[in-house]
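Hi X.,

You mentioned you wanted examples for the new student's onboarding notes, showing what a folding record looks like when two proteins sit in one file. Here is a clean example. The first protein comes first, with its sequence line followed by its structure tokens.
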Amino acid sequence: MKKYNPVKIQEYWQKIWEKEKIYQATDFSKKPKMYILVEFPYPSGDGLHVGHVRSYAALDALARKKRMEGYNVLYPMGWDAFGLPTENYAIKMGVHPEKITQKNINTFRKQLKSLGLSFDWSREINTTDPKYYKWTQWIFLKFFNSYYDKKEKRAKPITELKIPENLKGKERKKFIDNHRLAYQAKIPINWCPHCKIGLANEEVIQGKCERCGTRVERREIKQWMLRITEYADRLIEDLDKVNYLEKIKKQQINWIGKSYGTEINFLVKLKNKNLGNIKVFTTRIDTIFGVTAIVVAPEHSLVKKYLAFVENQEEINEYIEKAKRKSEMERTELLKEKTGVELKGIKAINPLNNKEIPVWVGDYVIATYGGGAVMVVPAHDQRDFEFAQKYNLEIIEVIKPQKNQEVKRNVNGKLLEAFEKDGILINSGKFNGLNSEEARKKITELLEKQKIGKRAINYKLRDWVFSRQHYWGEPIPLIHCPKCGVVPVPEKDLPVKLPYVKKYKPTGTGESPLANCYKWINTKCPICGGPAKRETDTMPNWAGSSWYFIRYIDPKNDKNFADMKKMKYWLPVDLYNGGMEHTTLHLLYSRFWYKFLYDLGLVPGPEPYARRHSHGIVLAEDGRKMSKSFGNVINPDEIVKKYGADTIRMYEMFMGPFEETVAWSTNGLIGIWRFLNRVWNLFNQIEITENKNKNLEIITHQTIKKVSSDLENFK
């Protein structure tokens, strides 16, 4: 074949590769193992786009290199197929999600195979397959039947929990349930008033429902939760054990948000009546004498309990209603201007100088963080400074700069901005003259002595909201019995299969569409045999992806989620590549699940991934994100047909630094096509000889070294 014909070449060789199964990994090979993993895709109706190819092609090149170096390489592929987009599309088109999912998977598989990627297809998995989600449900039951031993810093079976002897009946059960790693709690969630459904944060786009575009509200609903917060310290500390990009480590640490500080009680009064204490967490107790207000979350118990007694009840109610229409992400946006309304008539007492200060309600304060209340120190926090100027609050300086530090003031000596650094205390009574670090220690000691405060550690990370009021997800394997309470489905009865129903639209009550499946819901209690009902919430789309890398190791095992010997051979994953957008959710969740399984002796090590790398996004040629609405999505199928798989894969390796965002360039693609033509023509022109050329040999070895190094380091 004189003329370069990539389509003919790739069709010929791909058939041979598939027939001879040359990319299938071998369990327990004598070769050194190399487990290379890419994030498995969500099979959307749009099919594969060129952004997917960037990650797959890069890891494919490395996998091929490692095989040539004598490694036993596992490079698998599967489908993260549960999720809201499929359910939305199914509702819109009137086609069942199961049919849509299978169709989309077939399209994706065909596209990936056309690219000639060296995946081990014998290990293909699908999170919507009952044979797969049987084990997702099994792992959930392990969470439900476990608690966290804070002394030993690990999970244990709930049967080992020490229960006070005086607790009997309902009190005993309540004690046990309060310690489970999977538990139910009433929490504020994003709520779409049009769809009448709860939404995860990722389903809220600019404060609006992703499904219908209606502005989202906040509403309290019972949800199943996983106690990921128990693992917060280990998730931070064990980052020292892995080879992740520093930006990935930093992003995880910031998301967990561990901070050391002081918890302090402010007495609250309504005229002359004591209302009890508000607990406030602060990392800057050295600024306590500069507090000129307390701000509480709209959901704070103080607001609910005493709203009827404040002087501006109507104004407060109006503000709370506006706050309900904002998502948590909107409310906590750092660039957002702080807003609030004073609870007129209610005052807080600063415990260190007995000074009365106003209490406000502000939507930038979240009920689930730091007790749902913050202290306002305008002179030493810039956002507090802006808040104080907006609402005419007092500004008291209590920290003065040390040498070589400056404070910006106007000609009259007034602050132009907050001084946020550590310094020397002033206007702080007996603590005057101390530096900030020393003052934090001594003030906290005084508060502890007087039993009005204590040292505390706080986390931004909150327990994982694990239930969704959707149809297309894994059923949560629990049963509600009027007599026995919440009871786990026996393991022998797993999987609890998702019923095939014609109607899977939202119920309008906030419940999952499964609430309308009466034949499926009504069941018998596994303990007493009496009438009971199944849990109707389903798991989030993150559930199946939290352990999929384990199932690749043993995908057809129907006795265990994976064989321990195989796990010991293949784990941890040697290299895991994925998008930076998954650093704080999927990556954190899967590390959490793995650590939990490790605590129970079900996996061989504390960390699932030895190395984590990330790739940049591929933008459209116009520099915007690829979107059907923009009409700029680039489908790889057309490129493969016209230029061949090698052209697109090679172009994506040359288009720019792997970690950075890059824009697609058709001219760049054509340049690679021309290069491959020149290589083909050159090969057909040269005469193969055994004569050695020393200079050529040197250049060859230099090239091998450079290419090898660049592949290993994603350059």
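Then the second protein repeats the pattern, sequence line and then tokens:
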Amino acid sequence: MRRRYSWLIVLTWFFFLASIPSLAGTIPQAIRNAPQNSWVRLNNNQFSDAWAPNGLTAANTKAVIEAWSSFAWDSLRGNIILWGGGHANYNGNEIYLWNSASGTWSRGSLPTRVVADPNLLGRYETVDGPLQTPISMHTYDGNIYLPRLDRFLTFGGPAYNVGGPSRYDNETLRPTGPYLWDPAKADPWKVGGINGSHIITSSYPADSILGGNMWQNRDSYPQGIPPGSDRIFGSNFTAYADENGQDVLYLSGGRSLWRYLINDLNDPSQDQYQLVGINDAGGHPHGSGTYDPTRRLWVELRGSDLQYYDLSGALPAIVRIFNNRIVYDSPADEGTFNFGSLVWPFLGDRYGIEYDAARDRYLLWEGINEIWELKAPADLASGNWAIKRLTPSSAGGVFPDRIAEQVLVDNNYNQYAFRGSAGKWKYIPEWDVFIGLYHPVQGDVWAYKPAIAGPDCTPVLTPSGATVPGAGSMGSIAVQIPTGCAWTAQSNDAWLVVTGGVSGNGSGNVSYSAGVNNGPPRIGTLTIANTIFQVTQATECIYSVSPSLVQLDSTAQSGSIEIATSGTCQWTATSIVPWLTIISSASGSGNGTIGYSVSANTGGERIVTLNVGNQIVVVTQAAGSQTTLPSTNVALQTNGGVASASSTIDSRFPVTAINNGDRKGVNCAAGGCWVDATEGV
């Protein structure tokens, strides 16, 4: 029974991947190279490198990670979107981004200036007001990205200084939110709201910084909420589901579970809330939650309680706590987790929990090397949940270790604080990895690459590679791989596009197209089931050269060659011999003139071919100067006379011939010979 669920989950998840807008393109090479069941660190700079400059931010920016904050995964751009702070920790509401292509942290906005609320002592709000921008908040596990709408969403949590996302209406304090942030408007030197709403200093006076109008307050909390259920979602956990081609958000507050849908991005009044779960047991607000869309099962770690909502039946479902139904895989691990404890620090202050759709399991992590696997029973009503310790490879000493780095739960405020991995532990389905974050200054981005489950999922690709014409073409690749192996196909180069078969399970086909090549021949790659497929493309450009045959005398000289082609076609000119040198325009595009020089030739005739664009130019240089010596006959006496002669034609050709009695005495020196000595009378 468990096996059947596993295949259904894999198929459902990858059909979902194929249906949503373009996912983050290239898997970082470090992840590809990493062995299974191992960690790899992905960031190339520190989180602190992206902080706003002094004067434009408040103190303690590290609280954006440190203080019960969370990130969302922008699958369209391959970015982490990080937002948080709040309550007694930090008042800046700026956005931070980590980009997987560059591996670097950057800012998505500058912080907005905050002002005291005249209606309530100790309360603050942004200078442009809660309808424009949110005050910074603890976000717990509440930040999420909606790929179809291309928006980051947060319900927020305890707001700066006094807690609670709220606004005034006619002197009445009431909840507000949720807030959407537009990633397409990200700008490190703009505030998220209106012009001039930045922190004002002598270096940055009023109206000196523009506003990006990046935020939208939906201001759409549900009406008619049943008694006892959440009204402000102060401490919330969220998870994403794609349902009927729409972004659906599942949202757990302290006493209820909601299904939230944005029907019209421009009309918040059309937002829908559905109460799908009721928590009569309550529980501590700290923790995180996750969702299995196949079984419609919401699982969360709240405080130190493990609990779930089964949404496959009548709604609203009633929460079920299963602390006493945990079975450890190894007796040695028995009692590692003190589920149900009421003593701080709660498990929710340490662990994040996330669903692994490819392997039908939940993984818990607390910022160290080890990970815990939790598996749901087929029979939720009475079955036991299995928990197992996973210990990734620590080869090379590359693994997360917050304890060694002094990022501690029970800290003395001289060290960094760890407020759990809740909201900072995410499964990235298009890469099949988990990403975790914990260090509040370094901002190290850790990727856990799980072991491949089931059969050997190494594919056979037919053909194994392709050569395509410069005019562009389409192609198809057969993927032979065992059933149960989920895979994706993606391009690693802009001129190659996957047009079909972006994902699959078991054998299938991938189709692709190659664009027109107006440059030199090129090589691109597709990654299919973690295997590289290479595409070599010729050029579409037509080149002509004049002259194509160059005949030169033996003297040193220079010359030129004309190349003609269309304006976008690139070319290079290369020589493979030292006596001919390209002296100007060794490369270019469109029509051009290539200058060359040759050295004097003192030897025999020589020939070289120049590569110009995709054409050949033959250059021939004549031999150097040659001299023909006259022959000289010298009569010798029969008794063996001695004779000698020398050349005065050219100092390069000395000639000496001596006969000491031979009929034909020959003595050749460099360049000349006395070759005809005959016997005299």
